[in-house]
Amino acid sequence: MNRPATYLDRILLQHREVAAKDDRNVDQLVERCLAMAPTRGFRRRVLNDAQSGISVISEIKRRSPSKGDLAVGLDPEVIALSYESGGASCLSVLTDEEFFGGSILDLQRASSACSLPVLRKDFTVSLHDVCDARLMGADCVLLIAAALSQVELQEFHGLATHIGLDVLVEIHDEVELARAIEVGASLIGVNQRDLVTFQVDHARALRMAHEIPEGVVRVAESGVRHPQDAAELGAAGYHAVLVGESLVTSPDPSEAVRLLRSASV
């Protein structure tokens, strides 16, 4: 029996249609990437900050497919500075326009406003997408295991590291974890949100933490709303939490970050 179509399926269809029309020369894009200044060390920052409490990757997110508008009028520069002042380790910026209301400009404005390393949060489906993450100024690119074949995961991961990007490989279960380890992932995110039901399952991250090998930086994604969530995940062995909706909708994002960051101390 085939699994039900998910929100991810719909998004990926649109992104793959766009990617199929992209005829830019990848070798030329790679050359441009290799000529750029070094990135700011996303993985390194997460790991360093985790020594004094769980690291917080704070997300700039205008809307979501499931909840609609979250913070349409947000100013990327203002919220990036707010996150930084609250002790965030890194930023995550949605650049998908159709489904999340984000943009490349959001990432560039947020990145230029502060010193934090930045993850391009998008649906990477081609070598062009990997290069574009570097060219727009991101320090890390997201690869979603559920969205990619193993050949794609290997190829995209290899290219990203070659051009100087850190890579956050997102997984949901033990099968995808094995795939991430196979390609040499050193930064793995466990998404607590089920791709079919879209519900958050906190037990998933707690279970998966013990399966991720030593030496891999562990990130818990989705559904982190309260300091207690961060404390539990930190105790389970996560180096960082990636938090979006509860921060962009908070009346005081800086304080919200500070409370998450201090929860596991």
Care to describe what's here?
With 265 residues, this protein is an alpha/beta fold. The protein has a single domain, classed as TIM Barrel (Alpha-Beta Barrel). Helices cover 43% and strands 17% of the residues. It has an eight-stranded parallel β-barrel, surrounded by nine helices. Helix 9 links the parallel strand 8 and strand 9. Helix 4 crosses helix 5 and helix 6 runs parallel beside helix 7. The longest helix is centred in the first third of the chain and has 14 residues. The protein starts with 6 loop residues before the first helix and ends with a helix.
Mean pLDDT: 92
How are the strands of the biggest sheet laid out side by side?
1-4-5-6-7-8-9-10
Number of domains: 1
What is the string of SSEs from the N terminus onward?
HHHEEEHEHEHEHEHEHEHEHH
Q: Kindly identify the CATH topology.
A: TIM Barrel
| Structural class based on helices, strands and sheet pairing | alpha/beta
Largest beta sheet, briefly? 8 strands, parallel, barrel
Q: What is the CA-atom radius of gyration, in angstroms? A: 17 Å
Strand content: 15-25%
Termini separation (Å)?
46 Å
Q: Which consecutive residue ranges, at least 5 long each, have pLDDT under 50?
A: none
**Assembly type of the shown chains?**
single chain
The backbone outline, from C-alpha atoms, is globular
Q: Helical percent range?
A: 40-55%
Summarize the structure.
It contains twelve helices and ten strands. With 265 residues, it is an alpha/beta fold.
